[in-house]
Amino acid sequence: MSVTIPAAVFGALLSFVGASVAAGDESVPEVIVAAPRPPTAQELVGDAVPNFVKSHSTPSRVLDQLTRWRNPVCPRATGLTDAEDRFVTARILAVAAAVGAPHDESPKCKPNVFIFFALEPEKLVQVLLKEDSRLLGFHYATETKRLAVFNHPVQGWYVTSTRNWKGLEKMDDPLPLPMDPDAPPFSQGGAQLFAGKVPPGDPGSRLENYASSQVVFATVIADASKLKGMTIGPISDYLAMLTLTQARFSNSCTQLSTIMDLMASGCPGDKRPDQVTAGDLAYLRALYSADLERPVELERSNIANAMLKAFRQGH
Predict the structure, then answer these.
(1) DSSP result, 107-128
(2) Nearest of 225, 227, 256, 262 to residue 242 by alpha carbon
(3) Model pTM greater than 0.85?
């Protein structure tokens, strides 16, 4: 299953990008995923881990189960200096490798994650909206205006699909989404997927649905004007987390530290991590090794338990 932004649309998007976050400094650090400090006892008190899991996971609206990548992630960043764009891409791939997420490091891989740095991010959203609002993810026509609002420093939109135990996969969308313009309509290879049809799971089981949700395409847009003065390392880790999981945006610090606190306006600067945290890595490892064919509450509970086990073992 393949989704992409048409070349003409990508060219239009490029007309709105181009701003160096590092304020003209083209030097970038080495791409290394160093072991972060382990969480403190205070960070793990009470419901800290279950709350962390809930804040980092957005269930599929069609299946109401957690989503993750099944096909290898192939990111492409644009809008910074060439060196910074390459660093962002390499950093996302390095984090994916560290947590066991599928990824493609080939320079010829077909991008399924586009990251744009722009001084006018609202205009990029409008370009996507004009081309095909379904690139902004599953939604109904009445929700389009709300979905297209750009109100955070960095925002992501995800196209997802539902796959059952037989391998039948359908796009999560009220209408069919064009896939490959060169393929015959409604072919198995998929110029279009049938609208409104969700692959059947196993209604006879309460613990296993025998169906899962996948992210198949992501668009991430960063408001470069709001990232000025920040270094490329923390920004790249934030983007890696946003790419590999549909984390929810928050304006306050979380009890268990996360790189997602980097953009939280209500989180003091000295509380904001400068790299992916132990909680982030533990969550991603648990997410990409979990059985995601279960009801969402079971999925979240199993991920939280796996995280706590990893913390006890010092991983």
Answers:
(1) TTSPP-EEEEEES-HHHHHHHH
(2) 262
(3) no
Q: How far apart are CA 112 and CA 99, in angstroms?
A: 19
Q: Which residue has the tokens 């972060």?
A: 36
Question: Using one digit for the tens of pLDDT, what is the confidence trace for 62-82?
Answer: 888 999 999 999 999 998 888
> Is the pLDDT at 149 greater than 80, yes or no?
yes
The contacts of residue 220 (CB under 8 Å, 6+ apart) are 113, 114, 115, 116, 154, 155, 156, 157, 239, 242, 243
Q: Please name every residue paired with 115 in a beta bridge, in sequence order, or none if there are none.
A: 77, 220
Q: How far apart are CA 223 and CA 17, in angstroms?
A: 10
Helix count and strand count (H, E) for the chain: 8, 6
CA dihedral 41, 45, 51, 53 (to 10 degrees): 40
Mean pLDDT over 96-117 rounds to 93
Please report the beta strands in the chain, taking only residues with DSSP state E, as ranges in sequence order. 67-69, 75-78, 113-118, 154-164, 169-171, 211-223
246: Cα separation from own chain's centroid: 5
